[in-house]
Write a structure and sequence with these properties.
Elements (H helix, E strand, L loop, with lengths): L33 E5 L3 E4 H14 L5 E4 L5 E5 L12 E9 L4 E6 L3 H12 L6 E5 L2
Antiparallel strand pairs: 1-6, 1-7, 2-5, 3-6, 4-5
Length: 137
């Protein structure tokens, strides 16, 4: 299991940032016929993306195509357990993708709508945001 991480980053650590507004980019289906759209905002970790991808691939018995439309490029830091306050910013723990309402998280093609809907439902259970199944218009 190879987790998604950037090949290289300009800066090792990043601010958390503000996450207001709705998605203006990556908010429409581009590759497949079915999509999983975010209804919440939040961070989705590389592990969660991989777990959702595996759930979809397992259900479809690796039939059809799956596109991952989000990429975890934001480093998240964490202090070790039971360490004292202060002493700077913690070490990089992993990478997350920033998701806004309206972002397309996954797309699927070359499967029936029933199969895609169930696969996306299983994937949605692995994610920390509320989602909605959508069909290309």
């Amino acid at each position: 299991m190879a987790l998604l991480t950037p090949k290289r980053v300009k800066y090792r650590k990043m601010f958390k940032g503000k996450r207001g507004g709705i998605a203006t980019r990556g908010n429409s289906i581009s590759f497949g016929n079915f999509g999983l759209k975010s209804k919440d905002r939040g961070f989705i970790s590389a592990r969660q993306i991989e777990a959702a991808r595996r759930a979809m691939a397992h259900y479809t018995q690796r039939g059809g195509r799956i596109w991952i439309r989000i990429f975890p490029d934001k480093p998240i830091t964490k202090h070790p357990a039971e360490s004292r306050m202060g002493s700077g910013k913690g070490d990089v723990e992993g990478y997350v993708a920033v998701v806004k309402p309206g972002s397309i998280l996954f797309e699927m093609g070359a499967v029936t709508q029933e199969v895609a809907k169930e696969a996306m439902r299983l994937a949605a259970h692995k994610l920390p945001v509320k989602t909605k199944f959508i069909v290309k218009a």
